[in-house]
Amino acid sequence: MTTNRTFTMIKPDAVAEGHTGAITKMIEEAGFRIVAIKKTLLTPERAGEFYAVHSERPFYNDLRNYMSSGAIVPMILEKENAVADFRTLIGATNPAQAADGTIRKLFAKSIEANAIHGSDSDENAQIEGSFFFAGTEQF
Ligand code: IDP
């Protein structure tokens, strides 16, 4: 089912460096409506749960620690073709390969500390949004 929604979170490096406002501005200027937003902290356990799909990867433990190292800003976003358009806006996982003008090109520090998450399917957008937000928090 296509929902026109995606899920994102600004990751600890970008929040700590004060890029939340600039990134949120880029997201809104690209035509996304913010349906839900908050600032919160993941425990290593919750971070591991969010990235459970990567549990066999060599970077999994580092990723859990990184994602629980500081505040994050999760959001649910709405726009036609949201999932694909948002992946284009954030750029490649590795900022060295991210296109000019993308959020990761502008703000990411490394392949791990890459500033922002974007869901890779409508199904995952729904699952990931529900991981952080109750239905009553989505407007
Ligand atoms: P994506 O976030 O672009 O969808 P995924 O492959 O789903 O990329 O990886 C999830 C996250 O895990 C990445 O955003 C990044 O923070 C981290 N990650 C991915 N590959 C590596 C790696 O090779 N080394 C360290 N961290 C990685």
Automatic annotation (TrEMBL):
Gene3D superfamilies documented for this protein: Nucleoside diphosphate kinase-like domain
Keywords annotated in UniProt: ATP-binding, Kinase, Magnesium, Metal-binding, Nucleotide metabolism, Nucleotide-binding, Phosphoprotein, Transferase
GO terms of molecular function: ATP binding; metal ion binding; nucleoside diphosphate kinase activity
Residues that coordinate or bind ATP: K11, F59, R87, T93, R104, N114
Its EC number(s): 2.7.4.6
GO biological process terms, semicolon-separated: CTP biosynthetic process; GTP biosynthetic process; UTP biosynthetic process
Enzyme class: transferase
Cofactor: Mg(2+)
Residue positions of the active site: H117
InterPro entries in UniProt: NDK-like_dom (IPR034907), NDK-like_dom_sf (IPR036850), Nucleoside_diP_kinase (IPR001564)
Record-annotated Nucleoside diphosphate kinase-like domain positions: 3-137
SUPFAM superfamilies, per the entry: Nucleoside diphosphate kinase, NDK (SSF54919)
Family according to the record: Belongs to the NDK family.
Protein's recorded name: nucleoside-diphosphate kinase
Natural source organism: Fibrella rubiginis
